[in-house]
Design brief:
about 45% strand
Length: about 80
């Protein structure tokens, strides 16, 4: 399942954890190469694909917490 532009929701077959994979592409596109994403809990392979950057992987719970924190932070700080 794809969240938005470069975020994917996967379920680890090994530990049954919901994982979010974020594609971080380089600003200037270069040659794409095969990269592998691993589960942050059990370290098993959950995704493989061609990309010109890297994958950032975290559990769905941590991903939602990070989004919640970023929405509550205001700039400039009061």
């Amino acid at each position: 399942m794809k969240f938005k532009n470069m975020e994917y929701l996967k379920n680890c077959d090994n530990c049954n954890t919901d994982v979010v994979i974020v594609e971080n592409e380089l600003f200037f596109s270069e040659k794409q190469k095969m990269e592998t994403a691993y589960c942050p809990i059990c370290n098993s392979k959950i995704h493989e694909g061609k990309i010109d950057g890297w994958y950032f992987v975290q559990t769905l719970k941590n991903h939602e917490n990070d989004k919640d924190i970023s929405h509550r932070c205001t700039y400039p700080m009061p």
